[in-house]
Amino acid sequence: MRALRTLGAALTLCAAAWLTAAAPAAADGTDGTDGKSGAEAPTEAGTGFRTATEIKPGQQATAAASTGDYLYWVFPAAAGQVPEVEAELKLPDASSRHGSATWQLDVYDGLRRHQPCASGTPARRASQQDETVTVSCTLRQVRSWSERWANDPLQGAYYVRLTVVDLPAQDLGLPIDAEVEASVRDGGGAHADGGDVTPLNPVLRAGTAPGTDSEPPDDDTASDSTDDKGGQVPHAVAEPEDGWGSGWWSDRWVWTVIGAALAALAGVGGYTLTRGPRSPGRPPTGPGSDI
């Protein structure tokens, strides 16, 4: 019975430690948003990387455009987070269309490297009768460091491009309405890569260098930062409130707690086996037991 009580106490301590460690990861909400911004969602999209409209994680951006346009948005993602993007398009009336069309969602990092989707449906073909079409993409977990030759997603800005890639020529220019939402969820392990790189957060205007006296563009989507010489440098996205490190939480906590639980179980089991059975009323045996 003593062994069972010891085992139960060890499991209780491990469970309490795991719940305490996991609490910060669950505090951000199920959709990975902070719910603090309350800012009005954008109602337009950019037409290129340089003019991409900034959206905050959790915001649902909208845009009215024409079929054939390239629509661009940009959002920040920190190390340890898993970015998810979903877009819904309201198509023109079926009577005005001349056939099916394929819509495609692409995601690029701050270096404009195309990032493959780990899950989701980034391309979908809509028939002439469809009223809406939905495309989505979930990226791999963002890392804080990577090899130069790798295409791993790194912390910084992420560009979303939405367009049609195959349709009848007669349908070009028909009006469409797009709704895009980018979210990030904390996957842990923000500090598990053993390194840290500068966030891939491009400067909005070409030729703007740290320390210059040029004024930043009057653009609400620009996020200004100050360098060591006092110059204003407008970047593609603003730094997240919790920074690019995505907090102190790491999935190493989970593996540490699991390892501690297994070690406790092994210790209790080994003690029980080596102690052996012992009758409650049996007197001790051995040298000096007759005294």
Describe the structure.
The chain is of the alpha+beta class. Helices cover 17% and strands 26% of the residues. A five-stranded mixed sheet has the order 1-3-8-5-6, with no helix packed on it. Residues 19-37 and 207-225 have low confidence and may be disordered.
The fraction of residues in strands falls at: 25-35%
The SS-based structural class is: alpha+beta
Task: State the helical fraction.
Answer: 10-25%
What are the segments in which pLDDT stays under 50 over at least 5 consecutive residues?
A: 19-37, 207-225
Structural shape: elongated
What Rg is obtained from the alpha carbons, in whole angstroms?
Answer: 28 Å
Q: Report on the biggest sheet.
A: 5 strands, mixed
| Largest sheet strand order | 1-3-8-5-6
Number of helices: 2
Number of strands: 11
Mean pLDDT rating: 76
**SSE series:** HEEEEEEEEEEEH
The CA-CA distance between the termini, in Å, is 30 Å
